[in-house]
Amino acid sequence: MIEIVSAQACIACDICIKVCPTDVFDRGPDGVPTIARQGDCQTCFMCEAYCPTDALYVSPAATPVGADSPHADEDAVARSGLLGGYRRMVGWGQGREAGARRDRNPLLSAVPPLPESALPVPAPVCDRMWNHPQPSG
User: Fold this and answer.
1) Residue 26 dihedral angles phi and psi, to the nearest 5°
2) 15-29: pLDDT as tens digits
3) Which residues, listed in sequence order, are joined to residue 58 by a DSSP beta bridge?
4) Which of 19, 72, 74, 122 shows the smallest number of beta carbons within 10 Å?
5) Residue ranges of the 4Fe-4S ferredoxin-type domain (predicted)?
6) What is the dihedral of CA 46, 49, 55, 56, to 10 degrees?
């Protein structure tokens, strides 16, 4: 769930407002987005991923954290390296290696041939609507 918009790092570009699929943000009077509908956040990380200045922090919690939580403390989140951490993890941003390039899973070089279908031939086409029994009478 979105927890922090850093007013110091934000450049008021409105990208987070535009990419949020559930309209969580409103533009503040100073241009810095405010978290207006936190309960609508789907924790999709889109806002954090697209933020060009790493000014956002989306907590992995599914519900808002309390004010006393370290996830709501901008200084604590910044010190831990989590402010903009999702964007860094996926490798978005200048000078970062894309996450797909770091992936070491085996690559599929060709699609294996499919065996002949074990499914029966298609069902016969019905001559009446929806294949429902006809009413009697």
Assistant:
1) -120, 150
2) 999 999 999 999 999
3) 2
4) 122
5) 1-30, 31-61
6) 40
Judged on CB neighbours under 10 Å (0-12, 13-18, 19+), 47 is buried
Dihedral angle at the C-alpha atoms of 64, 68, 73, 75, nearest 10 degrees? -170
Query: Exposed/middle/buried for 32, CB within 10 Å: 0-12, 13-18, 19+?
Result: middle
Burial of 50 (0-12, 13-18, 19+ CB in 10 A): middle
Nearest partner of 45 among 28, 20, 67, 25, judged by Cα: 20
Segments of the chain assigned E as strands: 2-5, 25-27, 33-35, 56-58
Dist. CA 28–CA 32, nearest whole Å: 5
Amino acid at 81: G
Quick: pLDDT tens for 24-66: 999 999 999 999 999 999 999 999 999 999 999 999 888 899 8
CA distances from 70 to 23, 35, 41, 57, 67 (A): 25, 18, 19, 12, 8
DSSP annotation of 27? E
Q: Is 132 left (phi over 0), alpha (psi -120 to 50) or beta?
A: beta
